[in-house]
Protein: Methyl-accepting chemotaxis protein
Amino acid sequence: MFGLLPSTRAQIQALEVITANIMIADESLNIRYMNSAVKELLKEAADDLKRELSRFDFNKLIGSNIDIFHKNPKHQRNMLAGLKTQHKATISVGHRVFDLIVTPLKSGSKNSGFVVEWTDAKERLQNLDYEGQLKAVSRAQVVIEFTPTGEVVAANENFLAATRYSLSEIKGKSHRLFLEPGSAGDKEFSLLWAELQSNRPWIGDIIRYGKDGRVLSLNASYNPITDEKGKVIKVVKFATDVSDRVHAVDTIGSALSSMAQGDLAFTLEKPFATDFEALRTNLNATVRQLASTLGAVAAATDRIDTGTREISTSADDLSKRTEQQAASLEETAAALDEITVNVNNALKRTEDARNAAQIADSSATLSGQIVAEAVGAMARIEQSSSQIYNIIGVIDEIAFQTNLLALNAGVEAARAGEAGKGFAVVAQEVRELAHRSGQAAKEIKDLIRKSSEEVKSGVKLVNETGDALKTIHDNIVDVNDHMQAIANFAREQAVGLSEVNSAVNQMDQVTQQNAAMVEETNAASATLAKETQRLRELISRFMLAQQGRTAPVAEPARFAVTNTTASRRPPIVRRAATHGNTALKQDDWQEF
Structure:
């Protein structure tokens, strides 16, 4: 091959059985040979290479130029043309990365070909990434490495700084050195290493002891490292120093305990680590605010208590006055009831009187009419009497004339002598009759005159009676009007008294309700006074700064253990999801 010696051909045939990925190109950079290993490598990556390199064809690689692997072949040709010694390069094709070792084949001073060793760089890059991650972990965390039985092999600077040991002081020493003294530490050591030797990792918060009893609070993971057969060959512990966090938690826990006991007269004076300083500041502000609030509540409670007592006293007085008012209103209501009854009775009597006045008015009117008729009758009688008087006068004159005629007849009869004697007797009789008629007419005339005078007097009296009856009628009308007004007033008064009575009854009911509400208010005031006293007692359980103490809460030691049972109880075992190596050998971290 390429005019090589038979011994060289034998060497090339040997390349078929080795695991290295070998490719050979001639001086023109045409591929002349690929062993089985490189074929498998390129065949497995063929699809990815084809997507990135359009001229790549796995089936036609033999005889193809290596330019198909480069996007800028000119650069590689120039480099290979002047290549005199072995050259290492890394090429990236898509997400594939390959490490190449190019060795020139010399024929005299000229290059007769090139041997290219291909390596998938994925594993190398992963190892570099792992190495970088481990270095980052080592910079940030406490790292210590043990033998499978717990002897210290190596420790990083963070571990040494945290424990204040030097590596020479702890190398080869048992892990028991860092545990709690006594039987509790012995038990923890036995349980922990039994788990680790069984390839079961352990993760959790732990307490460890450094030089001179220095206490460390760590969040740690113990990771068994196995060989290819699964045998534990070492244990690596990664841990974070959480002492600052524990110190902050313990201090705040102590402060909260003091607050739970009612002590608010404290402040946390000692600063925390930067990450936790806000907790201290906020807790101090909370305590101050709570103390201020409780102080204000206490002052308000005193004021409420004073006000409540005043309210209670006032409520008692108001209750008594309300009861008196209720009694007075009840009596007033009863009196108004009686007055209303009396007014209603007076209204009834007034109505009766008004009716009687109306009847009297009717009777007076009727009497007036009768008197008027009597006056008319009397007038007619007077007129008739006047007529009779005139007639009697006529009769008296007739009697006088008759008497005169009789006298003349007697004279004539006397003259007549015996012949006129009878006539004289008749004339005498007529004269006597005329005399008696005249006398009777005179008497009748006197009687008629007297009767006329009595009639006049009667007419006058009847007129006066009529006038009196008219006056009575007018007075009765006035009385009736007054009685009507009195009746209306009495009716309105009755209605008003009824409304007043209703209002007083409502006032009585409202007053009774007010009295009941005053009693309830009094009871509520008493209850409020009791609750205020209870609130004062509750507030008195708190010790506030103004009560005379401002001492800070006793802060725990920088690395104090808040729960001593944590280091005595068996460690909590958390099994890893996978077995196998979870860390690399310390010596391997720094080299490829």
